[in-house]
Amino acid sequence: MPADSSGPDLTGDGVPAHLPGDPEHTVLELARGEHHWLRARMLPEGLYELRYRDGPGDDRFELFSSDHVLVRDILFAWLDESSWWREGVAWSPIDPAISEIESVRDELSELLGGFSLLGALEDLDAGLDDALRRADELLGEPDED
C-alpha cells in the first residue's frame, strides 16, 4: 500500500501530533512477502485497527485498540521478529467472507477510480424506500379480508 512519505510529526511522548490525509487512508503496512504482513490503520476518534496475516492460508486476524503504546509495541515486536506480538495479544480471527468482501470492495474501488459504489447503492436503497413509503401513502392501508 502506498504511504505518505512525509510521516507524522511526533510529540515527545510518541503521539502523532498531526496525521495527514483522511483517517481511512492513514495506514502503515509492514510486509515480508505476499503472505506475511501486519497493517495498522488509524480510525476516527483515536481508535486503531490492526490486522495481520502470517502465512499462505486465508486466516487473518484483527484487534482494535485506543492504546497507541500497544500499537507501537506490536509494530516494533513484529519488526524484531519477536513472538510476543502474536502470542501476547488477544487477536480475533476475521471471518473469511468478510475478508473476501473487503478484497472485492478494494478492487472495485481501484477500478472505479474513487467512485463510491457502496455509497451509490445506499442512495439507491434510500430512494427506493422513499418511493415505497410514498406509494403506501397514496394507496392507503390494504383492506383486510
Overview of this structure, please?
By secondary structure, the protein is of the alpha+beta class. The chain has 2 domains: 1-94, no CATH class; 95-139. The protein has 4 helices and 7 strands, in the order E-E-E-E-E-E-H-H-E-H-H. The chain has helices spanning 68-79, 84-87, 96-111, 117-139, and strands at residues 9-10, 16-18, 27-31, 36-42, 48-54, 61-65, 92-93. It has a 5-stranded antiparallel β-sheet with strand order 3-4-5-6-7, covered by helices on one side. A two-stranded antiparallel ribbon has the order 1-2. The N and C termini lie far apart (61 Å). Mean pLDDT is 75; it is low at 1-21.
Which short descriptors sum up this protein?
145 residues, alpha+beta, 5-stranded antiparallel sheet, two-stranded antiparallel ribbon, 7 strands, elongated
Describe the structure concisely for a colleague.
The protein is an alpha+beta fold.
Q: Helical residue percent?
A: 25-40%
Low-confidence segments, ≥5 residues, pLDDT <50?
Answer: 1-21
Strand count, sense and barrel status of the largest sheet are: 5 strands, antiparallel
Q: Mean pLDDT, as a whole number?
A: 75
Quickly count the helices. 4
Distance between the termini: 61 Å
How are the elements arranged and paired?
Layout: E1 9-10, E2 16-18, E3 27-31, E4 36-42, E5 48-54, E6 61-65, H1 68-79, H2 84-87, E7 92-93, H3 96-111, H4 117-139
